[in-house]
Design brief:
Layout: H1 2-20, H2 22-28, H3 62-97, H4 100-115, H5 118-128, H6 133-142, H7 145-160, H8 163-170, H9 175-192, H10 195-211, H11 225-232, H12 238-267
Helix pairs in contact: 1-3, 1-12, 3-4, 3-6, 3-7, 3-9, 3-10, 3-12, 4-7, 5-6, 7-9, 8-9, 10-12, 11-12
Amino acid sequence: MSLIRLFSWGWMAIGLFLVLFKQAWEHFFPTLIPEWIDSALPPLQPPSFFHFWGTDELGRDVLIRLLFGTGYSLAFSFLVAVLTCILGISIGILISVSSTQFKKLLNLGTDTVSSLPFLPLALICLSFYPSNLPILGLLKSFLSWGPLAQFIRMESELVLNGPIIQSARSQGIPSFRILWKHLLPLVLPLGLSFFPFLVFSTVLTLSTLDYFGLGFPIPTPTLSEMFRQYQEHGEAWWLFIFPFLVTTSLLWNLQLTQNTYRSLMQQQAY
């Protein structure tokens, strides 16, 4: 299992490396960028010694484009997941320490936000701002923090009524210090356990939007771009097989990471 996990994280690290050092790659290795077109060969070539995963309809290397597309998708999904965790944990703690009336109001707002559908709202926003990734990321984060906030609220209420917080209050420790030094370290691991799931769901959402041309702007490489090309060139099997394997491996690895983190969480004694 450790070798499989190492392999999965390895190719994702390569994708992020290519994205972070894209300018250096363009300067020193111009043939290893996703926009480079091999004019020496006819476009839409099957896997060969020169292009291990073949080329697309424009003669661009499929392997390089998938590496960059994986890096872009992961970078976007990680940022969205971080923002969602910050919102969910902060609002969940705020609900747990609020008064009864304000708590009811916050719970109502949380349930309302959780019930809003993402895809119709995303289509409406993208119709006004096409391929605007910051707006798409903010919308995804705004509609995803509700379940996390409810879990954090329940855990925070248990911790606040527990012996640790009661002992701290009896010693006259200020409320802000209790929240920062005692409550937050106890509920933070639970919030972080949602992080792989949030990345998982964001990658799926972004891939779906990319498939319909509503995600990253063209010609940015994405995980779903090859599937669109495969619809027009059904004989090019490599445009479907390799993107499918990369996408499946990425989602499987994120799910494996979440299960591993949950097993570690269950071993901890509160």
